[in-house]
């Protein structure tokens, strides 16, 4: 009977030791699982942050493009108005210059004809 009692005591100690080990393994597993979940959450947050930054950059780029197009439109309008005003105020000068060019061309033609007839 003592022998059975010793065996039972030994088995009880072994069972207690194994139960303690099993509890330690469960705690380690839970700790690792918690750590993995935190890492996954961190990666998800990093992805969300990257997506938000990218969306912000796209919005800023669109705003910059719209601003540039508006400035370009304004510059073209100013340039067009300037060209019209210049032509309106200086059209007589332009006509005189064209007239002078035509006279020079006529003189060149006459002179070349004279040179041809003289030779």
Describe the sheet with the most strands: none
Principal-axis shape equals rod-shaped
The number of distinct β-strands equals 0
First and last CA, distance: 154 Å
Number of helices: 1
SSE string: H
Mean pLDDT: 91
What's the alpha carbon Rg, rounded to whole Å?
A: 48 Å
Helical residues, percent: over 70%
Estimate what percentage of residues fall within beta strands: under 5%
Structure classification: mainly alpha
Protein name: Alpha-taxilin
Keywords: Membrane, Transmembrane, Transmembrane helix
GO molecular function, one term: syntaxin binding
Family: Belongs to the taxilin family.
Structural commentary:
By secondary structure, the chain is an all-alpha fold. The protein has one helix at residues 2-118.
Question: What's this model, at a glance?
Answer:
With 119 residues, the protein is an all-alpha fold.
Quickly list its features:
mainly alpha; 98% helix
How are the secondary structure elements laid out?
Blueprint: H1 2-118
């Amino acid at each position: 009977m003592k022998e059975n009692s010793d065996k039972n005591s030994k088995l009880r100690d072994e069972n207690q030791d194994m139960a303690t080990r099993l509890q330690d393994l469960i705690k380690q597993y839970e700790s690792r699982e918690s750590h993995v979940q935190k890492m996954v959450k961190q990666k998800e947050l990093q992805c969300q942050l990257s997506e938000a930054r990218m969306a912000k950059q796209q919005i800023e780029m669109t705003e910059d493009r719209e601003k540039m197009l508006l400035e370009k439109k304004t510059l073209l309008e100013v340039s067009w108005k300037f060209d019209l005003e210049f032509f309106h105020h200086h059209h007589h000068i332009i006509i005189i210059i064209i007239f002078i060019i035509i006279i020079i061309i006529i003189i060149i033609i006459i002179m070349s004809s004279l040179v041809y007839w003289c030779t």
